Every structure is written in C-alpha cells, then in structure tokens.
Amino acid sequence: MKLSTSLILSGLSLVSASPLKRVVTNTTSTITPPVGKWFDRFVVIVLENTNKDVTFGNPYFLNLTNMGMTLGNYHGTAHPSQPNYITMVSNTLSAGVYDDADHNSTEMSIIDLFEPAGITWKAYMEGYTPLADGGCNPITEDKSTLYVRKHNPFMSFDNIRNNTARCQNIVNAEENFAKDVALGAKAPMYMFYSPNLDNDAHNTDIPFAVNNTQYLIDTMLLNEEFMRNTLILLTFDENNIYINDNFGLPNLIYTVALGNDTIKCYDCVDQQYYDHFSQVVTLERNWNLSTIPQPDGSGEGMDMWWRPFGQLRAADDNICAYAPCSEYYDGKSPAPSDGNWEDQDY
Ligand SMILES: *[C@@H]1O[C@H](CO)[C@@H](O)[C@H](O)[C@H]1NC(C)=O
Ligand SMILES: *[C@@H]1O[C@H](CO)[C@@H](O)[C@H](O)[C@H]1NC(C)=O
Ligand SMILES: *[C@@H]1O[C@H](CO)[C@@H](O)[C@H](O)[C@H]1NC(C)=O
Ligand SMILES: *[C@@H]1O[C@H](CO)[C@@H](O)[C@H](O)[C@H]1NC(C)=O
Ligand SMILES: *[C@@H]1O[C@H](CO)[C@@H](O)[C@H](O)[C@H]1NC(C)=O
Ligand SMILES: *[C@@H]1O[C@H](CO)[C@@H](O)[C@H](O)[C@H]1NC(C)=O
Ligand SMILES: *[C@@H]1O[C@H](CO)[C@@H](O)[C@H](O)[C@H]1NC(C)=O
C-alpha cells in the first residue's frame, strides 16, 4: 500500500488495525489506485436460493453462459442467506453472523483493504432508503420495497454502519445503478448489487428474476466504456436445499463470469472448486492487497486458504481471447477444466 503520511494527515480519519498499517475511513482522497492484474472493475450481482440445475434450465440464464465463463463448480458457503453475503466481503464465514438476524460485527471486511488502496466501491440495494445524510439505515426490512438487511452485508460491520462517509457508498439501486454505469470508466471499481426479494427470486422464481437481471446485465453490456476491463460475476447466495449447516454438504449454485476483456474465453466453463471466499481472494490478488487481518490483528483469516478465479485474463495474455478455448461449453454438460489455475501466480 503506497500511502504517504502527508495524505494520511490531510483530514482522513484512521483506526488502528494491525497488520494493516492504516485503515482510511474516508474515501475522499487522491490515492492512486493499483492497476488490476486481471480487471479494473468487479461487479457482483447476488440472486437467491436456487439450485444450479434449475437456473441452467432457464433459457435466459443458459444464454448468459454462452456469453461468458461458467464457474461450474461454484458453491455457496452456508445456510441460511446472510452468512453467504458476509463471506463475499469478509474473510470469515461468520464474523459473528451465522444466521439471518441483525448482527453488529467488529470484524474487518474487504472495504478495509479497498479504501487505503484507493479502490472505489459502492453497494446497490434495491428498495433501500438511506438516512437523510446518506447515513446507514439499519432497518431489518422494508416490507413495502422488499429490501432486507440480511442481503446487505456491509450493514453488519460496525466500522461501516457507524461511519457516514462509508455509508454514503451504500445506495438505493433503482436511483443509482444505471446512473453510475453511465459514468463509464469513472464508475466505482467494486460494485455489489442486491436485488429486492422479488427480483432476486427469493419470493418468486427464476423466470420472474429474468426481467430485472436482464435489465441489469444489458445496462452494463451495452456500455462499452463501462465494460472495459470489467468482470461481472452473476451468482446466487445458496442453493435451495435448506440444511442448517456451514460446510460439508454440496451447495452448488449457478455462477457465470462475464466480460471479454477479463476472462480467458467465452462460452466456456471452469470446473475448479470455488465458493464465495474465492471472490475476496480474487479481489485481493487482482489489486495486490494484503489479506484481511483478524480484528485483533492476530493474523490471517480464511482468505489465505482459497483460490482466486483461475481463468481470468491478464492484459498481456492473449491466449483464448475472443475465441473459444478448448474448454468449450455446449450448454448441456460442463466440460472438465484443465485445472491450470496455478499459472495465474496468485
Ligand atoms: C472526507 O475528508 C475530506 C477531507 O478531509 C472532507 O473534506 C470530507 O468532508 C470528508 N467526507 C466525509 C463524508 O466525511
Ligand atoms: C437466447 O439467445 C438467442 C441468440 O442470441 C436469442 O435468439 C434468444 O432470444 C435468447 N433467449 C432468451 C430467453 O434470452
Ligand atoms: C464475448 O464475445 C463473444 C464473441 O464476440 C460474444 O458472443 C459475447 O456476447 C461476448 N460476451 C460479453 C459478455 O460481452
Ligand atoms: C446493532 O446496531 C443497530 C443499529 O446501529 C442497533 O439498533 C442494534 O440495537 C444493535 N444490535 C446489537 C445486538 O447491538
Ligand atoms: C458501532 O455501533 C454499535 C452498535 O450500534 C455500537 O455498539 C458500537 O459501539 C459502535 N462502534 C463504534 C466504534 O462507534
Ligand atoms: C422489468 O424490469 C425493469 C427494470 O427493473 C422494470 O422497470 C420493468 O417494470 C420490469 N417489467 C416487468 C414486466 O416486470
Ligand atoms: C504487491 O505488494 C507487495 C507488498 O505490498 C509489493 O512488495 C509488491 O511489489 C507488489 N507487487 C506489485 C506487482 O505491485
């Protein structure tokens, strides 16, 4: 982290967090962000509670795999919903958040790595109404808009929820997403998107979720400038076989990566084992960040153990670019991966 003392002293508030030297809690700064190894922007959209084969059975979701890379062996990390979301932005399964209730965690998240590095971020929550000053609205749910806190992982972290500057990055999706995509190259470098309970298939089903999902995906794909070096991950929180168990049982979900600048092939499949931890690890490796330390500074968390997505395309790597790789996906049966994730030097 190249962070000069003068920058730090110029009005940014700090909390101590070893082994990270400093955690900046105000993103208004001039820190030059790192150049991504595989991508300059990461967008994740999280849908809900659907078994992988059910999603693949839908013509729209199947179509999307033709446009990108299926992560054919991607798993949710828990049941019920909330811990899955926590895992996507944190380095531990729980952070004290093992169920769907409201939790206030003192643990750290990926945001604590992003801000000192100058990586811009925003979370888009459908149906969410922030407080008047943009502060975090900790309500459990809004029955009229179908927003729920359990699908907004950022709200669980004290050092986000208690910090107005950070809260201002958690916004109402309907008002802000298309507007921010239209910023093109200037859109946030990390974008986390939670649809409402209808649009994410939670209260509905996959055919219902198509309309809004297609709107989101098309909004991005139609903006060439936005898509430059952008990786989109469309995933689910968990499958629909509810067993109150963290690990051990398969929790296979549909996940597709889109963005021809950033993945090695389209209409292809990577069969390496991944789960929600892989997101954080991929982000850390992409931007050469450290891992997320434990809140007491006592060393590394689970992000040390996991693999980043292995078939991402570095800028100088033209292999498979814009042409199908050998890992061709025929829309019916995922092909085996060549397992060469080691070649990514993570
Ligand atoms: C962030 O810090 C800048 C520079 O000190 C300050 O002007 C700005 O008001 C702060 N923003 C927030 C939201 O606190
Ligand atoms: C799938 O893609 C094909 C070819 O682009 C298109 O004709 C068809 O309408 C798409 N189907 C859905 C459900 O999106
Ligand atoms: C990637 O490129 C292929 C070939 O041009 C195209 O069919 C596909 O839609 C593209 N995918 C995305 C996400 O733009
Ligand atoms: C967690 O924080 C919220 C909002 O700040 C507060 O209303 C709630 O009482 C807290 N819960 C616990 C268990 O501390
Ligand atoms: C953050 O909020 C929680 C719950 O509202 C509270 O218990 C805690 O003391 C706050 N932490 C800080 C650092 O303000
Ligand atoms: C489809 O989604 C768009 C964007 O969310 C929304 O404006 C429109 O009302 C939806 N259409 C239907 C039929 O639900
Ligand atoms: C990544 O970070 C490490 C430690 O912070 C540094 O030594 C190394 O030079 C960085 N690598 C790149 C490619 O920036």
TrEMBL record:
What domain of life does the UniProt record list for this protein's source? Eukaryota
Q: Which GO terms describe its molecular function?
A: hydrolase activity, acting on ester bonds
Under InterPro entries, the record lists:
Alkaline_phosphatase_core_sf, Phosphoesterase
Q: Which residues form a coiled coil?
A: none
GO terms under biological process: phospholipid catabolic process
Q: Which residues form the signal peptide?
A: 1-17
Q: What keywords are annotated for this sequence in UniProt? A: Hydrolase, Signal
Pfam families the UniProt entry points to: Phosphoesterase
What is the name of this protein? Answer: Acid phosphatase
Organism, as annotated? Talaromyces atroroseus
